[in-house]
Amino acid sequence: EVQLVETGGGLVQPGRSLKLSCVASGFTFNNYWMSWTRQAPGKGLEWVASITNSGGSTYYPDSVKGRFTISRDSAQNTLFLQMNSLRSEDTATYYCTRGGRRIFDYWGQGVMVTVSS
Amino acid sequence: DIVLTQSPALAVSLEQRATISCKTSQNVDNYGVSCLHWYQQKSGQKPKLLIYEGSNLASGIPARFSGSGSGTDFTLTIDPVEADDIATYYCQQSKDYPRTFGGGTKLELK
């Protein structure tokens, strides 16, 4: 059974940093692209970042480019999202998702990030 | 960016057919494959993949769900609608970066 478990969310002040983690199990982690997708309270879905299965390439929308960094540790089957210079508009539930080259076929339960002073 | 447009809400009766539309600002077909996918999100839950590449049913999804369309016009059909299908439905494109989602269509009961 595919499982994606996110940790690291919480309340953070504007301008500060936060790092999310996602532990994956139930599939061969090295074979899949991985991504982060977020959802602001009461809003729709927004893709945040993707990383290739090798970790050699990463992709971001302009809204987070230069502030967020996606990475992966294949030895620990773990996906990361380093978020710097956080803004109030980054407040959202962040989902770890398998895929990103085409589809997002499995989603974690999500972790809440609140950016507020 | 490719913009995906969905109607905000759709009211339907149980056991009737629901048709949810997704229109894209650019052609999202690539070498004959539609790079358009559908997700279901129930209230308070994570999204779930329903349909990929326009018309392919994801694993474990019941056959009352179907997808159709090509180019810039796509449709998700639920027939017949069951009470468990009340949710918000999102389309998503993978033709280009950034990956984008539609705003979602909330399926409601009449």
Secondary-structure topology with pairs:
The complex is a heterodimer of chains A (117) and B (110).
Chain A: E1 3-7, E2 10-12, E3 18-25, E4 34-39, E5 45-51, E6 58-59, E7 68-73, E8 78-83, E9 92-99, E10 104-107, E11 111-115
Chain B: E1 4-5, E2 9-12, E3 18-24, E4 29-30, E5 33-34, E6 36-41, E7 48-52, E8 56-57, E9 65-70, E10 73-78, E11 88-93, E12 100-101, E13 105-109
Q: Structural class from helices and strands of chain A? A: mainly beta
> How far apart are the termini of chain B?
35 Å
Strand percentage of chain A, roughly?
A: over 45%
**Helicity of chain A, as a percent range:** under 10%
Which parts of chain B are unreliable, with pLDDT below 50 for 5 consecutive residues or more?
none
Q: Output the number of helix runs of chain B.
A: 0
Give the overall silhouette of chain A. globular
Give the chain pair forming the largest contact, with residue counts: A-B, 21 and 22 residues
Number of helices of chain A: 0
Helix and strand content put the structural class of chain B at: mainly beta
Molecular shape of chain B: globular
Low-confidence stretches of chain A: none
User: Main β-sheet of chain B, in a few words?
Assistant: 7 strands, mixed
Structural summary, described in words:
The complex is a heterodimer of chains A (117) and B (110). Chain A is an all-beta fold and 117 residues long. Helices cover 0% and strands 51% of the residues of chain A. Chain A has strands at residues 3-7, 10-12, 18-25, 34-39, 45-51, 58-59, 68-73, 78-83, 92-99, 104-107, 111-115. Chain A starts with a strand and ends with a strand. The model of chain A has no long low-confidence stretch (mean pLDDT 98). With 110 residues, chain B is an all-beta fold. Chain B contains no helices and 13 strands. In chain B, the strands form 3 sheets. In chain B, strands 2, 6, 7, 8, 11, 12 and 13 form a 7-stranded mixed sheet that branches. In chain B, strands 1-3-10-9 form a 4-stranded antiparallel sheet, with no helix packed on it. In chain B, strands 4-5 form a two-stranded antiparallel sheet. The mean pLDDT of chain B is 97.
